[in-house]
């Protein structure tokens, strides 16, 4: 059922404009050998194109910046040219860096003025539904400096003392209360100035952008994520993604 009751974050004259940065420069080694992960096909279309369409599906998003593999910007540009994308959205391609963090920073540096809300979305999450994208934007518009879509965990999580050798038993040191934990997805949404400040001040390894905003001492809020926003990481995830697309085709057919 479509959620027509929720106000859509359409870009009115006074509404903040939203840009999406898509880091797509990773090799995706856990997926096995082959092309960079973002360029692998799902149902015949590169994962990156699915991710770009997922961002452009929101009427609030007027610009998508794709951060390409450092030596692959030209290839990504021709890929975007070769696929149908909404006319109301502009696209930019910039070369990425050695880490995800560096790639996001390079995408932010390329943003023209006039976009006050920034989404950061992994190319590896090609199937996030537009309602999730819109919910993140809405929460930033409502005043949160940083917003993450998040889901409760099915598995209990243990903290371990990592073994020196892979495969060796690892001592468990703690069991955080599962009800208080969330698995965090993308797009993560930010007030632009906050995200720029986070990338300029926070150093050290982080696995998501909201974590950098937390390090600034600001509040990050979580909104409900979606099971279809999963990250394509391992070979089995490709099978799941194809199944989700097949289900969508079936549902669209009726
Ligand atoms: O490796 P992981 O799955 O966490 O990567 C998340 C996202 O960050 C992917 O979309 C990947 O392409 C991107 N990335 C990047 N630049 C890097 C490494 C990862 O844009 N150097």
From TrEMBL:
CDD domains reported in the protein's UniProt record: CDP-ME_synthetase (cd02516)
Molecular function in Gene Ontology: 2-C-methyl-D-erythritol 4-phosphate cytidylyltransferase activity
EC number from the UniProt entry: 2.7.7.60
Catalyzed reactions: 2-C-methyl-D-erythritol 4-phosphate + CTP + H(+) = 4-CDP-2-C-methyl-D-erythritol + diphosphate
Site location (Positions MEP for the nucleophilic attack): 178, 231
Pathway in which the depicted protein is active: Isoprenoid biosynthesis; isopentenyl diphosphate biosynthesis via DXP pathway; isopentenyl diphosphate from 1-deoxy-D-xylulose 5-phosphate: step 2/6
Family recorded in the similarity comment: Belongs to the IspD/TarI cytidylyltransferase family. IspD subfamily.
UniProt-recorded name of the protein: 2-C-methyl-D-erythritol 4-phosphate cytidylyltransferase
């Amino acid at each position: 059922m479509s959620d027509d009751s929720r106000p859509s974050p359409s870009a009115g004259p006074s509404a903040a404009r939203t840009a999406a940065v898509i880091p797509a420069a990773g090799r995706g080694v856990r997926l096995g050998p082959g092309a960079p992960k973002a360029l692998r096909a799902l149902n015949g279309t590169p994962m990156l194109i699915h991710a770009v369409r997922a961002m452009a599906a929101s009427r609030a998003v007027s610009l998508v910046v794709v951060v390409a593999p450092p030596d692959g910007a030209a290839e990504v540009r021709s890929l975007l040219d070769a696929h149908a994308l909404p006319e109301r959205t502009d696209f930019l391609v910039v070369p990425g860096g050695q880490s995800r963090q560096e790639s996001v920073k390079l995408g932010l540096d390329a943003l023209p003025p006039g976009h006050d809300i920034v989404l950061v979305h992994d190319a590896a999450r090609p199937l996030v539904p537009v309602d999730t994208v819109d919910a993140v934007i809405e929460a930033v518009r409502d005043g949160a400096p940083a917003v993450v879509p998040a889901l409760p965990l099915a598995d209990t999580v243990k903290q371990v003392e990592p073994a020196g050798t892979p495969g060796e038993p690892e001592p468990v040191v703690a069991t955080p209360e599962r009800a208080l934990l969330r698995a965090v997805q993308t797009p993560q949404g930010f007030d632009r100035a906050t995200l720029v400040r986070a990338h300029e001040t926070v150093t050290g390894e982080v696995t998501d952008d909201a974590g950098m905003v937390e390090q600034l001492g600001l509040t990050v809020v979580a909104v409900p994520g979606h099971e279809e926003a999963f990250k394509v990481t391992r070979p089995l995830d490709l099978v799941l993604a194809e199944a989700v697309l097949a289900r969508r085709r079936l549902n669209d057919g009726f």
